[in-house]
Amino acid sequence: MKKQATEGGEQLFYPASRLINDLQKLEPSLYSDLINTPVTITKGNDDYKHVTPVITLHDGGKIYWNYYRTIKTDEFIDQLCERFFAYLHAKESSNSVYSIRCESGDAFIFNDQRTIHARTAFKAEKSRDRVLLQSMWKF
Question: For residues 63 and 54, is the Cβ–Cβ distance under 8 A?
């Protein structure tokens, strides 16, 4: 975090294991659709595409999710994305999601396939009132 905004901008983390448990208990139909429906997710300038269910259970459970990069190829997938997006929004302030306020100079590391992450809205008066530097590695 090169520069944190004066208000907002907290990082939200929802671990895949907790997400899977919550979905099984609270939304079994959505859970079933997320583990059984392949979607296409793009990265970069659409050069890389990954076709996978949003949640896979092998290797302890993994999540492949980006609402804005998931290709809505038909009405079912569009509705699946909307249902999951609404579910995640409703869980933002629950005990299942960690909310962490990083300050200028802080750093954090996480596995993108083991947690869903987002951030809260932030207040900025001018450009660069909040600057988060990121780097990604693929192992």
Answer: yes
The model's pTM: 0.86
Task: Report how far apart, in Å, the C-alpha atoms of 97 and of each of 11, 54, 139 are.
Answer: 10, 18, 26
Distance CA 61, CA 111 (A): 12
CA pair distance 62, 53, nearest whole angstrom: 10
Q: What distance in Å separates the CA atoms of residue 40 and residue 128, rounded to the nearest whole number?
A: 33
- Listed range (9-18, 29-38, 53-62, 128-137) with the worst mean pLDDT: 128-137
User: Which segments of 1-139 are extended strands (E)?
Assistant: 7-8, 11-15, 38-43, 48-53, 55-56, 62-63, 70-71, 98-100, 115-119, 122-123
pLDDT tens-place string over residues 102-137? 888 888 888 989 999 998 888 888 888 788 777 777
Q: 11, 5 in Cβ contact below 8 A?
A: no
